[in-house]
Amino acid sequence: MSKNNMGKVLAFLAGAGAAAAAIAYFVRYKAFNKELEKDFHAFEDEELDDGDEEDPLEDLNNPSHRNYVSLSSSKDEFKAAAKDVKESVGAAASAAKDVLKDTAAVLKDTAYEAASAAKDTAHLASATVKDTLDSYKDKQETVEQMAEEAASEIADAADAISDKIDKALHEDPKETTTVEEITE
């Protein structure tokens, strides 16, 4: 197998490994998004089941449902509001942390699977190349043996012809040698 064909085979196998890794990543990413969307809808359904059947935006449009902080609020009211904001930010940060952990786990698994697929593909390619090389080496040895045998036969035939020519030159010219005798 020439170097050009070997390079094409290796490039094809590398491309196939990359495609397999991309497909595995895409499938895992899609499954993760579906699961995340299902969890999100379940979370929305839980909020609606808690007794809040009204749209939260409608509450903001109705002035009687709005909560205002008066400018003459006491320190206790500001502390309570700050505590509520702190708790909300903490819950959001915790949720973001969990999402990032899950995303990192999915990416780690996907990268591991892609590396494993690439490794397996490389092993298969290496074994295929080795088998092909061994096959060509066997064929080359056979051709070399056949060439040696043919060269030996040609040398023997040339020696025989040379002997016949020498014999014909030293014989009496009256005796003629036919072409058939020379080639025997």
Task: Describe the fold and architecture.
There is one protein chain. The chain is rod-shaped. The model has no long low-confidence stretch (mean pLDDT about 80). The chain is about 85% helix and about 0% strand. Helix 1 packs antiparallel against helix 3. By secondary structure, it is an all-alpha fold.
Helix-strand pattern: HHHH
Distance between the termini: 42 Å
Number of helices: 4
- How is the biggest beta sheet arranged? none
Number of DSSP E strands: 0
Average pLDDT number = 78
Class per helix and strand makeup: mainly alpha
Strand fraction? under 5%
Supply Rg: 44 Å
Shape: rod-shaped
Poorly predicted tracts of residues: none
What's a quick, concise take on this entry?
This protein has 184 residues and is mainly α. It has 4 helices and no strands.
For the structure shown, list the relevant keywords.
about 0% strand, single chain
Task: Summarize the helices and strands and which ones pair or pack.
Elements lengths: L2 H47 L6 H6 L13 H96 L8 H5 L1
Helix pairs in contact: 1-3
